[in-house]
């Protein structure tokens, strides 16, 4: 607690350090660095694009980001968030008061967002303890409230990070469906993943994989996610390391096996806590609210139309040895006899607002009908040795985008299996411009 | 009239980039090239989250958290070798601050382990509480206190009197 630091012998120095640190920080000027914003935007575009490409594998990653946001303070309320150490006054931008950089205020009943609740974290901890084998626990922020709790568990065989969150996936269970769907092993390799539907309509996924899908670190992430019929999620995660992201592994496997993890999220004791999470408002916020013009959502493609069309428009002579996807995304793994090649497609509406970022550079041509076509050859980005990524990215003037990519491997994180993808650049372009993409139902 | 995702994001980025970049410069103890890279990466991550930011209570504070995590993950990917002190600020403000002390501070920050440096930046530049710092770093409050105490001890050893002199004037 900050108040304890009044007894800290370093405190006097800390008071003096603030102004020096601020003076040093303020000496770095951003004038003449416009590329910071433009470069950030470009990276964001690529990141979003990759996420959309990997949508089948993305469910887990997206969920993890959501939990990250929770841990970052939107839902967890430290007991003394407002009672902050005041050793350093807030630095200001250009002398103007900069309220936006003040750390998040503690949510109170008045500032909680729809779908959020203030659950005493000690209650969450008690339920975790009651549903796990005896061991030594240390939880973070036990005297606070919120919907997510993290801690470290040690059964004597090595400390392991553990996290649990209670949240609302959306207005109904369908909103959380991708959180209880096993990721496609082509995109998120894992050792085991099972799903089941319970008698009360709840759905459950137990996942045993890795913190990083490319296994660049040996940290395992085992996880159980329960989705109730009301769209509420109980999400338990454990690691074989005392912290996420980069801590050395402390043990061979996370401490709780699949069945124990399943038992944690299925505990009846969660039900009263879940009941405290309020529903979301049934109607979206009023259009044109203060300073936030309403953005009309573009049509979304659901179902298997993209997958079916991809198989229909592929050049003849390619044997399909794997397939997957859903919604706006689909992939096939083809083999022309010379090795596996992953071919994936995204079909998206309403992308015209980012046309400049997508087609502002590189080998871009404009067809007579106004369609933009960008062809690119680049190295793979998911760690497979020698992987090349060819793509034909097309967009109509009204923002209908079809991007087809092909790789010289069956999975991006695996090493190249051939020199080039199974489709030529010319074939990729023809596939992307095929009129059949526009016939896929969207709503 | 629809506002594009890019427009909304640009508004946020324009307002926040200065502070992110300056934080990054302190985290990298003056390596402005790495700081630029970290700032862009952070903005990129924020862009990808954009639209889901209603789930993030305070995007500005969250961006700073993302920056620190991005920095630490970058440090872990590097070899454990000592990072050379990067270039010094190419802009000397006429604000009466002491350029030698600034250099000494960046030097002293560079000598701290990255996670200790992150704790110092979050607590004394970002003005976060122990608990908020612990949240941002996915660690315990106790660990933050330990790191804070250790880092302040080292900084005081290196900077000592000159800091008091600066603060006192």
UniProtKB/TrEMBL annotation, chain B:
Residues 21-79 form the RNA polymerase sigma-70 region domain. Residues 104-155 form the RNA polymerase sigma factor 70 region 4 type domain. Keywords: DNA-binding, Sigma factor, Transcription, Transcription regulation. InterPro entries: RNA_pol_sigma-70-like, RNA_pol_sigma-70_dom, RNA_pol_sigma-E_actinobac, RNA_pol_sigma70_r2, RNA_pol_sigma70_r4_t2, RNA_pol_sigma_r2, RNA_pol_sigma_r3/r4-like, WH-like_DNA-bd_sf. SUPFAM superfamilies: Sigma2 domain of RNA polymerase sigma factors, Sigma3 and sigma4 domains of RNA polymerase sigma factors. It holds the Pfam family Sigma70_r2. Belongs to the sigma-70 factor family. ECF subfamily. This is SigE family RNA polymerase sigma factor. It comes from Streptomyces omiyaensis.
């Amino acid at each position: 607690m900050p108040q304890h630091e009044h007894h800290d012998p370093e405190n006097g120095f800390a008071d003096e350090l603030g102004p020096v640190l601020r003076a040093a920080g303020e000496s770095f000027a951003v004038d003449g660095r416009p590329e910071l914003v433009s470069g950030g935007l470009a990276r964001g575009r690529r990141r979003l694009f990759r996420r959309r490409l990997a949508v089948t594998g993305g469910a887990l990653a997206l969920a993890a980001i959501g939990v990250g946001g929770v841990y970052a303070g939107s839902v967890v309320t430290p007991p003394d968030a407002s009672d902050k150490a005041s050793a350093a006054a807030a630095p200001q931008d250009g002398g103007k008061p900069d309220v936006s950089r003040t750390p998040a205020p503690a949510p109170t009943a008045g500032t909680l967002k729809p779908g959020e609740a203030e659950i005493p974290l000690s209650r969450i901890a008690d339920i975790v303890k009651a549903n796990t084998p005896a061991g030594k626990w240390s939880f973070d922020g036990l005297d606070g409230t919120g919907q997510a709790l993290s801690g470290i568990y040690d059964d004597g065989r090595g400390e392991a990070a553990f996290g649990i969150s209670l949240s609302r996936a959306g207005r109904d269970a369908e909103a959380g469906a991708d959180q209880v769907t096993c990721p496609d092993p082509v995109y998120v390799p894992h050792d085991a993943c099972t799903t089941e539907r319970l008698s009360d309509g709840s759905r459950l996924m137990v996942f045993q994989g890795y913190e990083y899908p490319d296994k660049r670190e040996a940290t395992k992430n085992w996880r159980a996610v329960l989705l109730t019929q009301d769209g509420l999620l109980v999400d338990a995660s454990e690691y074989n390391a005392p912290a996420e992201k980069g801590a050395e592994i402390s043990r061979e496997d996370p401490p709780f096996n699949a069945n124990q993890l399943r038992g944690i999220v299925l505990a009846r004791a969660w039900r009263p806590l879940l009941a405290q999470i309020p529903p979301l408002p049934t109607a979206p916020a009023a259009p044109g609210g203060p300073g936030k013009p309403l953005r009309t959502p573009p049509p979304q493609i659901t179902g298997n139309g993209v997958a079916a069309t991809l198989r229909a428009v592929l050049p003849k002579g390619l044997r399909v040895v794997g397939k997957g996807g859903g919604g706006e995304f689909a992939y096939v793994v083809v083999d022309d006899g010379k090795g596996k090649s992953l071919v994936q497609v995204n079909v998206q509406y309403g992308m015209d607002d980012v046309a400049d970022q997508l087609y502002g550079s590189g080998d871009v041509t404009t067809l007579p009908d106004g369609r933009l076509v960008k062809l690119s050859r680049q190295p793979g980005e998911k760690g497979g040795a020698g992987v090349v990524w060819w793509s034909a990215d097309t967009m109509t003037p009204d923002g209908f985008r079809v991007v087809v990519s092909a790789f010289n491997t069956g999975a991006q994180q695996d090493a190249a299996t051939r020199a080039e993808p199974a489709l030529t650049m010319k074939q990729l372009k023809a596939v992307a411009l095929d009129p059949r993409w526009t016939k896929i139902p969207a709503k | 009239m629809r506002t594009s995702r890019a427009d909304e994001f640009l508004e946020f980025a324009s307002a926040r980039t200065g502070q992110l970049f300056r934080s990054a410069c302190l985290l990298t103890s003056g390596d402005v090239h790495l700081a630029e890279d970290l700032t862009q990466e952070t903005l990129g991550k924020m862009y990808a989250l954009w639209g889901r930011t209603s789930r993030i209570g305070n995007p500005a504070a969250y961006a700073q958290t993302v920056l620190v995590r991005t920095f630490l993950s970058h440090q872990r990917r590097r070899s454990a070798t000592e990072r050379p002190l990067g270039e010094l600020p190419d802009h000397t403000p006429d604000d009466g601050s002491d350029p030698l002390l600034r250099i000494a501070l960046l030097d002293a920050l560079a000598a701290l382990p990255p996670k200790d440096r992150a704790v110092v930046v979050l607590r004394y530049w970002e003005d976060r509480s122990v608990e908020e710092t612990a949240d941002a770093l996915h660690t315990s409050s106790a660990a933050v206190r330990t790191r804070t105490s250790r880092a302040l001890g080292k900084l005081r050893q290196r900077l000592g009197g000159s800091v008091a002199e600066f603060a006192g004037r």
